[in-house]
Amino acid sequence: MAADTMKTGPSLRSLAGRVAVVTGSTSGIGLGIARALAEAGVHVVLNGFGKPEEIDRIRSQIASEFGVRTGYAAADMMQPAAIERMIEGVMEEFGRLDIMVNNAGIQHVAPLEEFPVEKWDAIVAINLSSAFHTMRLALPAMRRHGFGRIINIASAHGLVASPFKSAYVAAKHGIIGLTKVAALEAAESGITCNAICPGYVYTPLVEAQIDGQAKAHGISRDQVIRDVLLAQQPNKRFATVEEIGALTVFLASEAAASITGVALPVDGGWTAH
Question: Is 272 inside a domain boundary?
Fold first, then answer.
């Protein structure tokens, strides 16, 4: 197995100098993960949609706050050719790719027999197929250095189902299967592949849902949180983007070298039912 000259000890700061790509990272969970990796000394490449000036601000803030290099790729995760250009660009700019975080995702809710075909295709493309494309392209670079961490952001819905979320549940179950296959294929190469399975995480998108549900049902915000959004989470609290970021950093570290092929729930006990 190839030796890795970047090992500096057991601390998370041993990640310093690594290079990570985080898809869907211009806001929400992905941005939280990117910030956590940068705090650990990782150079990060952001990906996602947004106003150019806002993305530039985020990049500059991360770079100045944590003293790392930052990049940005506007690749549309529905387009395999764009994903390939993104990975090629990372290799050209940074010369390596150590940590691949597949976080990009979208959602649509509808009964199965009424589910729009175009929504099914888009959800499967972004939530599942994009991870296949990043992984197949990142693995050769990781093998060359004898080190790699692939971290797929799945969902509690990768482990259990809910009504009206057929495409999302199918894609997230698929991500967990893909994670296991990659873990087995790369097991002797210093590469791990794991899935994180969050329940509800507090983000601006969830905040908007709280207000919308409260108005729609004529109930208080606290009732929406406890009885609607967190009905399946026994601890009755949202996970935070910082918690997901911290777990991602741990899985990327040397301390997690023997953890591979697993789906780790961060769901307040949802899947313990």
Answer: no
Cβ-count burial 164-191 (b if 16+ within 10 Å, e if not): ebbbbbbbbbbbbebbbebbeebeebbb
Q: Same structural domain for residues 118 and 30?
A: yes
Residue 10 pLDDT greater than 80, yes or no? no
Mean pLDDT for the chain overall? 94
**Residue indicated by tokens 């250095």:** 145
Say whether pTM exceeds 0.90.
Answer: yes
Q: What's 181's domain CATH number? A: 3.40.50.720
Is 168 known to be catalytic? Answer: yes
Instruction: Tell me how far apart the alpha carbons of residues 194 and 248 are, in angstroms, rounded to a whole number.
Output: 10
φ/ψ of 158, rounded to 5, equals -85, -10
3-state helix, strand, coil in the chain (%, to 5): 50, 15, 35
Would you call 256 exposed, middle or buried from its count of C-beta atoms within 10 A (0-12, 13-18, 19+)? middle
133 and 78 Cβ atoms separated by less than 8 Å: no
Exposed/middle/buried for residue 114 (C-beta within 10 Å: 0-12, 13-18, 19+): exposed
Q: Which of 72, 168, 200, 202 is catalytic?
A: 168
pLDDT of residue 9: 40
Q: What is the largest CA-CA distance in the chain?
A: 61
